[in-house]
Design brief:
Chain lengths: ~270, ~350
């Protein structure tokens, strides 16, 4: 077992740091339905953390708790050593937590460039009057952020569709633009909700490469939900397994793979 | 062959980001500005000013204002007439209370007052959306008209209940009142329209514009990437109402000269401006101009052709105008929801490849 306080170095030489976010005894109820039951786990600086589980296990709800979209009924979320009070989703975004959605949530009426620029809204500060007359501040700020966004565009290889309205793009590219928008915010934690869903093999390989590159180059901590086990086992440093709202496994991929509870949850088990 | 982006290399993000990236468009824009400022003021007469240019300029301001709210921020409003009335009564009270202050300042202040009222009626937008918000703003429309009718303080206790614009001049030239020349009316409105259009363009291309469009396209996703829905919607209402208030102030003080609130700023006005925005193109500054031009010119055109040319009775021509506008709205909503601006964009895209489309 690894030392849980110090962090460690992975086989491919990446450094995993201390605890960045900790979820303590999270319970989430919708009326009489309990979506998440008393789950605790932590997310470490620089790691790729996967959340897996069968359909309806509460993975997306968990992600929504992390992103502040749902406020947990019980339990607390600790970020960078402080307990996070009840916050609005846009305040969580300002803390440096960005996410993508299972079913793409891009702004269809805007171009790819504008969509990615929206990712930097939390970092842009110029006021109403400066913008109204496009004097120094606003114009300079726009260019500075444009430069950062162009780097991400290069990084994700979407230069040629920069000015295309998002509504016209095919599915795989939309997913990539959504990732770009999330990256543009320069997040500490990036939440990916099924980034490979509905993709073919090549698109999945591209996406895996991007996720690894993001983690490697920007040092972004990544939390992902994914159904493709091959992807999860290859990419992630540690895996949380959920079933019926409960945590049934937590650890490195190889450990989770051999966990009997996990195998039962996925393959089903005969009840006598 | 002349409408090309080839050879026009952009070497900085500023150049890439400009409003008219194609040189021919830029030239066209400057030419239009030159004609508007240099030629029309010299040749304009009272008929052209009152029938075409002044209403076009004022409605264009109002349409830009409404387009920011409906087209960019996605918040439907039927209260435009009411907000224009706020601008008109604000400028009237200001002009009568402070006769020495230039009327230009009054018009801007009237816009500011309308912005405050707009924010007040925009607050419900945080909770209600779509049709329900439209009904809430409809309530604003009827309430404001009722208010200006009911409280004599607003029309300075005049016996007729009307407000009448006093004579005011700037730099020795009358801009309001009966002695105003056609050129002065035109120039006053044109300068304000230029300012409004510039500000609107700058706001919509920057951070605030992106926030508005994000809220319009998908409000939940917008909130998750860090857009505060309250302040974003409220700024949209404020900026939109500011422009609409300016339009209302000009409509009363420069164009009409005297106004009765129910007649000049009734529900019909709200619909007229909404139609301008729909026909012109939601979410487009150019569309606001196109829609305003279209709906101002159509009646003039029909009147000249049907009544002047074919000798039909006036009332028949007026009814045909209503039918045409109604039909056009339906056609546009079904066939081209992005209006004239989209037709213009498509035409330009085709022109860029013409005559070799492959």
């Amino acid at each position: 077992m690894k030392d849980m306080n110090e962090g460690w170095v992975t086989a491919d030489g990446r450094k995993i740091g201390g605890v960045l976010m900790e979820l303590r005894n999270i319970t989430l109820k919708f009326g009489g339905v309990t979506a998440i039951k008393d789950i605790s786990f932590d997310i470490r600086d620089g790691e790729i953390r996967a959340i897996i589980g069968p359909n309806g296990a509460g993975k997306s709800s968990m992600l929504n708790v992390i992103s502040g979209f749902y406020v947990p009924t019980e339990g607390s979320v600790w970020f960078k050593g402080y307990q996070r009070g009840p916050m609005k989703p846009y305040q969580v975004a300002q803390l440096g937590i960005a996410r993508t959605f299972q079913n793409i949530a891009l702004f269809d009426g805007m171009s790819v460039l504008d969509n990615i620029m929206t990712g930097r809204l939390t970092l842009m500060k110029s006021g109403l009057f400066s913008q109204a007359f496009w004097w120094g501040g606003a114009s300079r700020e726009e260019e500075a952020h444009r430069e950062k966004v162009e780097k991400i565009i290069d990084f994700l290889e979407i230069q040629n569709i920069r000015k295309t309205p998002v509504g016209r793009l095919p599915y795989g590219l939309k997913k990539r633009v959504e990732l770009a928008r999330a990256l543009a915010a320069e997040p500490k934690i990036l939440l990916l909700d099924e980034p490979m869903a509905g993709m073919n093999v090549e698109e999945k390989e591209d996406m895996c490469r991007f996720i690894l590159d993001v983690n490697d180059e920007f040092g972004t901590t990544i939390v992902l939900i994914e159904h493709d086990m091959g992807v999860v086992m290859d990419l992630s440093d540690r895996v949380v397994v959920m079933d019926y709202g409960k945590k049934i496994g937590d650890g490195p991929p190889e450990e989770v793979r051999s966990n009997q509870a996990v195998i039962d949850a996925y393959l089903g088990v005969a009840h006598d | 062959m002349f409408y090309r982006e080839a050879g026009d290399f952009k070497t900085s993000y500023r150049e890439d980001n400009q409003t008219f990236p194609i040189r021919f468009d830029r030239m066209g824009f400057y030419a239009a500005l030159a004609v508007a400022y240099g030629v029309i003021p010299l040749v304009i007469d009272d008929y052209w000013a009152n029938a075409v240019f002044v209403p076009f300029l004022i409605y264009a301001i109002a349409a830009i204002g409404l387009n920011i709210l409906v087209g960019y921020a996605g918040q439907v409003s039927l209260g435009t007439g009411g907000f224009m009335a706020v601008g008109a009564y604000a400028v009237y009270k200001l002009m009568t209370a402070f006769p020495d202050v230039p009327v230009f300042i009054h018009v801007l202040l009237a816009g500011g007052i309308t912005a405050a009222v707009g924010v007040l009626f925009g607050l419900p937008s945080l909770r209600i959306k779509g049709f329900y918000l439209a009904v809430a703003t409809l309530a604003a429309q009827f309430f404001l008209v009722w208010l200006f009718n009911k409280v004599p303080w607003f029309y300075n206790y005049s016996a007729s209940g009307q407000i009448t614009a006093p004579d005011r001049s700037m730099f020795g030239v009358f801009v309001t009142g009966a002695q105003t020349s056609a050129t002065a009316k035109y120039m006053f409105c044109l300068i304000l329209l230029t300012l409004v259009a510039l500000v609107a363009r700058n706001l919509t291309r920057g951070t605030i514009g992106r926030k508005w469009m994000a809220i319009r396209d998908m409000d939940i996703a917008a909130e998750i990437i860090g857009v505060n829905p309250l302040t974003t919607k409220i700024t949209a209402f404020a900026v939109s109402s500011f422009f609409i208030g300016i339009a209302g102030a000009l409509f009363f003080s420069v164009y009409l000269g005297a106004a009765e609130v129910g007649e000049a700023f009734g529900i019909n006005k709200s619909f007229l401006i909404l139609f301008m925005v729909i026909i012109g193109g939601l979410g487009s500054i150019f569309g606001s101009f196109a829609g305003a031009a279209f709906l101002v010119l159509l009646p003039v055109f029909l009147k000249n052709v049907l009544v002047g040319g074919l000798g039909w009775p006036t009332d028949l021509a007026a009814h045909i105008e209503l039918m045409i506008v109604g039909g056009l709205i339906i056609v546009f909503l079904i066939a081209e929801p992005h209006g004239l601006a989209q037709l213009w964009r498509v035409a330009k895209e085709k022109l860029r490849l013409w005559p070799f489309p492959h």
